[in-house]
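Batch job 17 of 40 flagged for manual review because the log was empty.
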Amino acid sequence: MLDGYRPATGTEAADLVRVRALLATAPDPWRRDIPLHLTASAIVVHPPTGRVLLRWHDRVQAWLHVGGHGDPGESDPVAIALREASEETGLTDLKPWPGPDLVQLSVVPVSAGKGEPAHEHADLRYALATGEPDAARPESPTTPLRWLSIVDALAIVDLGLQPALGRVGALLP
């Protein structure tokens, strides 16, 4: 999975080194109780309109992409991203777009909360497409969803997500 990934910055290259070390040393790099663990996420796109779907993350008070932790026994990051995206958006037709390639790998600090100490996510980010954008439904009333152009999405997300959005945007018509 990581062999085809080409980091675009020094930070991304350093994150790749850390993730390779995690994979070489952790029996299960998806376990939530280790200080650095894998997560899988997605930029959901509707290619015909060039829009991306963002989700309000109540815990961090920010508009972000969808995704999260693997469930016990899961190890395929694309499958995890698909499951998480479907759960968080209600979209049932999601598929890797334009293919299953990694869009970005980013190590993200996570503040302590919900009974967990501060830790880091090694987030494996993919692009997933839907043909039914109007079918999107928020997981809960506190996690609204918004379809936005790449330009509008770039204006409201944090700096860490901007490279992934930019890469996905470059693939859109």
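Reviewer: the log was empty due to a logging misconfiguration, but the result itself is present. The chain has one domain: 10-171. Unflagging and moving on to job 18.
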